[in-house]
Amino acid sequence: MRSSFLRLACATVLLLGMGWMNSVLAWKSPWAPAVKAKTVELTPLSTETIAAFLSLLNTELVEYAPTAEYCQGAMLDLNGDEIDDYVFILPWMGCGLNADGTTAHFILSGERGRVETAVEGYAIELSDLVELNGKIYFLHSTFFNDFEKSQHNHWVYQAFTFEKNGTVTHANAAFGSLFPAATIYYNNPKFKRVPLTPNDLKLIHEKTSYPSNTYIPAQRKLMRY
Questions:
Q1: For residue 50, what are the contacts with CB-CB under 8 A and spacing of at least 6?
Q2: Model confidence at 170, in pLDDT bands (50, 70, 90)?
Q3: Of 84, 91, 152, 157, which one has the fewest beta carbons inside 10 Å?
Q4: What span, in angstroms and rounded, lies between the C-alpha atoms of 162 and 132?
Q5: Count of Cβ atoms closer than 10 Å to residue 96 Cβ
Q6: Please, how many CA atoms are within 13 Å of residue 68, restricted to the half-sphere of its CB?
Q7: For 178, what's the count of Cα atoms within 13 Å in the CB-facing half-sphere?
Q8: Do the domain assignments include residue 13?
Q9: CA distances from 156 to 22, 24, 26 (A)
Q10: pTM score of the predicted model
Q11: For the ranges 84-88, 131-135, 175-179, 216-220, which has the lowest average pLDDT?
């Protein structure tokens, strides 16, 4: 009896997870033609390199980290200065909605050395890095539950880009009126844009302005990057 109950509980969690997963990724199907961007060429990093990064992770940016097998990593020039940059995608390994929460760590070349920015979101993949008119962008999705005049939870979609000083900045204007956008959280793949008030837009900008940290202490120079 107990094992049957556990199997039923696990199946329920899986089905619910599939529902919100379809919801957070809903933009990829109807918006792909409008984005008119292409995926970028990148070099995947080995599990050993990812493990080296995790062992030296800036603890100020993340409270814990999963093992390397569950993470993604790649090397490419993100900010167009002809110097390789790095991205590491770390799942939160949580339950429920947080089962696919992720943090992307972008490590870029900057004017004073390497700069690290940790960007939190949901369902982040390396395929969210796209190229448009010769510039690389990061298409980002995250969760909001405190919009003005709304009692709903929402998925919010935006675009970010990478500056030569090593920072990660909003770049919604590059996609016209496409971003930022919001859709109501559903437990199915429905998709319908909802209007955003000026205060909503301000809140989105404030909550998704991620601080950058210049680092590379001596021990990090031992890493393969």
A1: 68, 71, 72, 73, 88
A2: very high
A3: 152
A4: 13
A5: 11
A6: 15
A7: 21
A8: no
A9: 14, 9, 11
A10: 0.80
A11: 216-220
Residue 71, domain extent? 26-222
| Count: domains in the chain | 1
Cβ–Cβ < 8 Å for 213, 113:
no
CB-CB contact of 214 with 225 (8 Å): no
Of the candidates 153, 205, 199, the residue with the CA atom closest to the CA atom of residue 179: 205
CB 199 within 8 A of CB 107: no
Look up tokens 């900057």; give the residue. 110
Query: Parallel, antiparallel, or unpaired: how do β-strands 85-91 and 72-76 relate?
Result: antiparallel
Burial of 223 (0-12, 13-18, 19+ CB in 10 A): middle
Nearest CA among 132, 186, 126 for reference residue 154: 186
For position 34, what pLDDT does the model report?
A: 59
Task: Identify which of 152, 85, 147 has the alpha carbon closest to the alpha carbon of residue 115.
Answer: 85
Q: What is the DSSP string of 194-216?
A: ----HHHHHHHHHHT---EEE--
Phi then psi for residue 201, to 5 deg, are: -65, -40
217 cis-preceded (ω within 30 degrees of 0):
no
